[in-house]
Amino acid sequence: MSETVPGGRPTLEEVAARAGVSRATVSRVVNGGAGVRDALVEKVRKAVDELGYIPNHAARTLVTRRNGAVAVIIAEPEFRIFSDPFFERQVRGISRELSAHDTQLVLLWVEDSGDHERIARYLGGGHVDGALAFSLHDDDELPAIIRRAHLPTVFGGRPGWTGPDGRPEVPYVDCDNRGGARAAVRHLRSLGRDRIAHIAGPRDQTSALDRLHGYRDELPHTDPALIADGDFTRESGARAMAALLDGRTDLDAVFAANDLMAAGALEVLRERGARVPEDVAVVGFDDMPAVAETTSPPLTTIRQDIEGMGRLMVRQLMRTLDGERVEALVTPTDLVRRASA
User: Fold this and answer.
1) CA torsion angle 57 129 69 140 (round to 10)
2) Measured distance CA(316)–CA(273) in Å, rounded
3) How many helices and strands (H and E) does the chain possess?
4) In what order do the strands lie in the sheet with 69-74?
5) Which long-range contacts (CB under 8 A, 24 or more apart) does 321-325 make?
6) Burial readout 195-224 (b: 16 or more C-beta within 10 A, e: otherwise)
7) 149-196 residue pLDDT tens
8) 303, 275 in Cβ contact below 8 A?
9) CA–CA separation, 284 vs 292, rounded Å?
C-alpha cells in the first residue's frame, strides 16, 4: 500500500525509503542510468510498482537530456497515408520498436508545401530527440529542414542526393528495389513471356526509379510503349494498364512497381476480357497481404519486409542517439508466387 497522502503522487524519496536505497540510486534506475547492481535495480522496481510511482518527464529530460519522443515524418498527404497499407505497416513496425525503447511516436505528414514551415518550427523547438523520414520526393524541402534543426535522422528509402563521394551522406534503410525488380522480370521470362510491360512509380522517388532500372537491366532494348507511369495508387495502375493495352495489344506480362498499381491493372485486364495469367501474367512489388491476397487472382509479388524495415529505422536512430556511427542498411527481397504469374 502506498505511504503517500491519499491522492498524492509518490516521490523519489518515498521510493528510496521503500527500497532501502539512496534517492540518487532510484533516479538512476527510473531514468535508465547505468552502474546500479541488479539486486538494487530489482528492489527499486518493486518499490516503484508497490507505490505506483510515475517518473516526472521534465526531471527525466534533465537527467537523460532526451525527450523520449521521435518524429515520424511522411512526405505524403493524409489521404495517401490512410489509404495505402504500405504506410500502415511501416508505421506499425516503427511504433512497436519505439515502444520497446519507451519512446513516443509523433506523426507528422505533408498535406501541402505550407506544412513545411509548421514542421520546421516543431523540429526546431526541441520537442523530439530525432526523426524518421520516408516517402521523400526529389524536390522535398524536408531534408534541408531536418539539417537546419540539427536533428539526428534516419531515412526510409535511399535518398536522392549524395555526398562528395557520390554516396548518400545520411543513414537510411531500404530494400533491394533494383534486385527485386530484376527477379520479377526474370520470373516472367522463365514463364516464356517476352512482351513484358512495366507500370512505373513516380519518377521523383528513388524506389520507383530503382525498380524501373531493374526492369531495364533485364530488358535493355524494350519498346518504350511497354512502359507506363503511375503514382503508386490503385487508380493510377488502372489508368496505366488501359494505356498499355491501347498501345500494345500483344503484351503478355506486366510488372507493376507496387501491389496497389498491380491490383488496378488486374481490374482493367478483367474488364477487357484478358485471362490472368493465361493471356497476361502480372507481378507486383511489396507483398502487402491486404492487397496481394485479395485480388482476383491472388497476386504474385516481390516481398519486402515493410514492418521489419520500420523496426530497423528505429534501431539505427537509437544507435545514433547513443553516439554510434551507423551506415545504410539494404534488406533483401524475394518472390512470393501466387496465381497471377
Assistant:
1) 150
2) 48
3) 14, 12
4) 104-109, 69-74, 130-134, 153-156, 172-175, 329-331
5) 321/66, 321/129, 321/130, 321/152
6) bbbbbbbbeebbbbbbbbebbbebbeebee
7) 889 999 999 988 766 666 667 899 999 999 999 999 999 999 999 999
8) no
9) 8
Give Cβ neighbours of residue 180 (< 8 Å, ≥ 6 apart): 211, 214, 285, 302, 304, 333
Locate 116 and state its grid cell: 513545411
Tracing cell 547513443 back to the chain, one arrives at: 322
At position 105, the amino acid (one-letter code) is L
Which among 326, 271, 275 is positioned nearest to 297, based on CA atoms? 275
pLDDT at 287: 97
Percent of the chain residues past pLDDT 90, beyond the cut:
65
Beta 334-336 vs 300-303: how paired, if at all? antiparallel
In this structure, the number of other CB atoms found within 10 A of the CB of residue 58 comes to 7
Q: Which three cell numbers stand for residue 162?
A: 549524395
Q: How far apart are CA 42 and CA 141, in angstroms?
A: 48
